[in-house]
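task queued by scheduler; priority normal; single chain, no ligands, no partner chains; default sampling; output format set to structure tokens
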Amino acid sequence: MILMTLHKSLRKKPRARDLGIPFDGSPGTLNAITDVRGLEVGHATIVFGNGKLIVGKGPARTGVTAIFPRGKKSEDPVFAGWFSLNGNGEMTGTTWVEESGLLEGPITITNTYSVGIVRDSLIEWQIKHHISPRWSLPVVAEAYDGGLNDINGFHVKKRHVFAALDNASSGPVSEGNVGSGTGMICFDFKGGIGTASRKVQVHKQKYAVGVLVQTNFGDRQELRIAGVPVGTEIRDQLPIRGKGGSIIIVIATDAPLLPHQLKRVARRASLGLGRVGSIASDGSGDIFIAFSTVNFKVTKSSGLVKVTMLSNNELDPLFEATVQATEEAIINALVAAETMIGRDGNKVMAIPHDRLRQVLKKYKRQSMARSLSEA
């Protein structure tokens, strides 16, 4: 079954701010990566089967997520930079990003064993839509969802990749158990996709910074929310799982930045990750990529290319926004995710909203916002 997640058709889910969790900074209109104008996100969610694992038959709990920096109709590359905090994971195409400073095409995210088919299907999709560059080195990232998903069954197919790409759109972004986040686990709670954004001003110019995360990392005792040791306060209902995991972080901005500056921005996601308690464990693939949607047509075949950039001493507001939006995107993923039962009856609980509010209240860290259920 393909659940093609369309942003506008989903019921309203609570987000972290709805539970009274305080965050620093000013979010954009959507508080999502799509606050960066022109950017589009799509998901294909694969959920079928229950009970005992039969390899190749399920249960399946997986999917694909796609991010187009300038929308799916654009062939114009963007400046980009990437960073690996801990490299027990994969993000293809990053050697060319490092060499050229360019991201050519969308970023896609999936499970560990489906990177190859997603990469190849993306190239085929580009050719089919006549937007393929003369050659393609797609950026495809992953995290392991084998605790809930029949990962050895290779359930991600070309049609799922095409669905995620075809259905990408601007507007609100679906979070939690969707797309590549379907089978993910975070701090021993159900994890998945999360997003957030910040508005910043440099001199008189306003910019947006947006973050999208796929969360699949962390041990329960490490979890901190708004500085509160939530992981040590909520210690029950732990799933059976091994050490390790991963987080993929995608950072977008409409500020004029060059590749070396975007690499610096990508590094700052580490600080947002640290705010929620991660230690970037040995078994974790903590891999980040940042891009800027301005500076057009920088790959023209001849002549001088004129670009604009902020000076390095003006980057601090963007660094701060990246840290803040990364932290909130991770918590949004936890709050949006729902309890899931997967292969062999493995059950991973969603973080309990009522108990989370109680813990925040105990530490006097709950804001005046109310949850949707209380509103």
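post-processing summary
- The chain is about 20% helix and 25% strand.
- Helices lie at 94-100, 115-128, 158-166, 230-233, 259-275, 316-336, 353-362.
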